[in-house]
Design goal:
Blueprint (H helix, E strand, L loop, with lengths): L1 E2 L2 H11 L5 E2 L5 H14 L5 E4 L15 H29 L2 E6 L12 H21 L4 E8 L6 H4 L11 H12 L9 E4 L10
């Protein structure tokens, strides 16, 4: 398990009886290089990679964004996924097996005002995943994109718009990840959208 806050990571690791918690910043290429070296040394292989990092950074009209805010939003929500898949691609190619699971957002498919920059990044994750799968398919490596609706994860509070009361919960997304990872090797899910039962969308 990796994230920036080691204290929270250790608490999560203990909660699920995990093996290893490592502090890293997924927007930094050198941190990906370090984690690949660590995985090779400690385990010798990686069977499932879940690229789950993301954040709104700021949610507002495009005209109000600074250049730094745009760059930070794209780097966290799109570049980090590309960095992660690139980092472990050679290892999984050599293994001739593996599963990469990239977490996008329904913003990749639906449009809401003030979410445009975030949506652009998440749409990139969805289409990157499709292309990455075609590259990895000859090596028996699966790449899946999970497209979750808004859920009560703390995401909204982190970007300053107030937490939701959505029925969809983090564990529902986790169950989807587990389902995808546990499919027989002969089967692959291209992408899957997970909605909360209470969510209504009126498309543009």
């Amino acid at each position: 398990m990796t994230a920036r806050n080691l204290e929270k990571l250790e608490a999560a690791r203990a909660e699920v009886n995990g093996d290893l918690a490592v502090s890293m910043d997924v927007t930094k290429v050198e941190d990906w290089d370090n984690i690949v070296a660590l995985i090779k040394e400690k385990y010798g292989r990686l069977d499932v990679l879940v690229n789950n990092a993301g954040g709104g950074i700021t949610i507002k009209e495009v005209s109000e964004f600074t250049t730094d805010e745009i760059d930070a939003t794209i780097k966290l929500n799109l570049n980090s996924v590309i960095y992660g898949c690139r980092a472990f691609a050679d290892m999984m190619k050599e293994q001739k097996t593996g599963t990469m699971i990239n977490i996008s957002s329904v913003c990749a498919r639906q449009c809401w005002p003030t979410w445009s920059v975030y949506a652009a990044a998440k749409a990139g994750v969805l289409n990157f995943s499709k292309g990455m799968y075609l590259e990895m398919q000859p090596y028996n490596v699966r790449v899946t994109c999970i497209v979750p609706s808004s859920a009560s994860t703390g995401f909204q509070s982190a970007c300053g718009i107030g937490e939701t009361t959505d029925k969809l919960l983090p564990e529902d997304i986790a169950e989807t990840v587990l389902y995808v990872a546990n499919l027989p090797q002969r089967a692959v899910v291209e992408d899957v959208t997970v909605w909360g039962i209470d969510k209504q969308v009126n498309p543009l």
